[in-house]
Amino acid sequence: MKKVYGSASEALDGLLFDGMLIAAGGFGLCGIPELLIHAINKAGTKELNVASNNCGVDDFGLGILLADKQIKKMFSSYVGENAEFMRQYLSGELELEFNPQGTLAERMRAGGCGIPGFYTKTGVGTVIAESKEVKSFNGEDYILEEGIFADLSIVKAWKADETGNLIFRKTARNFNPPAAMCGKVCVAEVEEIVPLGGLDPDGIHLPGIYVHRLIQGEHEKRIEQRTVRQRENA
What we know:
The chain is built from 6 helices and 11 strands. Helix 2 (34-43) links the parallel strand 1 (21-24) and strand 2 (48-51). By secondary structure, it is α/β, with parallel strands linked by helices. Strands 1, 2, 3, 4, 8, 9, 10 and 11 form an 8-stranded mixed sheet that branches. Strands 5-7-6 form a 3-stranded antiparallel sheet. It is globular, with a radius of gyration of 18 Å. The chain starts with 7 loop residues before the first helix and ends in an 18-residue tail after the last strand.
């Protein structure tokens, strides 16, 4: 089965449709599948439902899909750094389902493991719990959260072999493994593809069974917030 494709557009060919649910890896701008996002933007797919920790910034990452009105609903933990997100949400143009960060990651992981739902204490007694089933275990209340089963997963890794085994670099690992797991089809972009056997089996973070298509490319790796110290006077 062919897994390596020549470009992001080729790797997404036949997978995109209006109204689909996409799980996207990344945290802030760290480890985001920027090439695949650009290809989705270029394809013009709309009415998208996107599960991701956040929605990029105004002119980069998922923010470019937002700017072109391609996203209908976000499942997110954090929505800062993006003025257009705020504008669309407050004006009623964008639907938003807030998820505690760990809950969102576990919803993705659960979907990838075929688990339809799980109980968690996170959010009990808050607006997160509204309209959700509450069950008591050992005298403590828990709320039922549903697993996320996405039509497509898009993720960014550091290295891959030709079968799709992935290694993530440091904190860029973040939401990428659970996001990759929960899609019916997973497309990964990486910085380097090595021959089969080129990765230490003990160092693989995500097995290739979860990855269906793969591309290699150059990445901008933009920094979301650059903070530096003032130079001390001599």
